[in-house]
Amino acid sequence: MLPAEERGAPCVVGIMCGPRAPLETALCWLGWHVRTYDKLGTQFNPPADLLDAAVREQATEDIELADFVSCAMDCSTLADPRDPSLRTSPTTTAS
Fold first, then answer.
1. N or C: which end of the chain has fewer CB within 10 A?
2. 36 near 14, Cβ under 8 Å?
3. Is residue 91 scored above 70 in pLDDT?
């Protein structure tokens, strides 16, 4: 990634943005430069596993040069709390 004064447009780095990278796609439509790091890959970049030291080093360099960094949480981590069977029923009191 080029420094801000050399690239002419703002730059976003998407971390764990998912294969569709919706925020990064919207910013691309607005003229932003986009770099993504997702294990599944995106339309902007091939798969990038952040457990690989070389990928982490490149991501760190890109993040330092970026105007905006977007970090997304994996949606599957939120699935269990939404499961109704995990919720407790309200406690009733005897009269």
1. C
2. yes
3. no
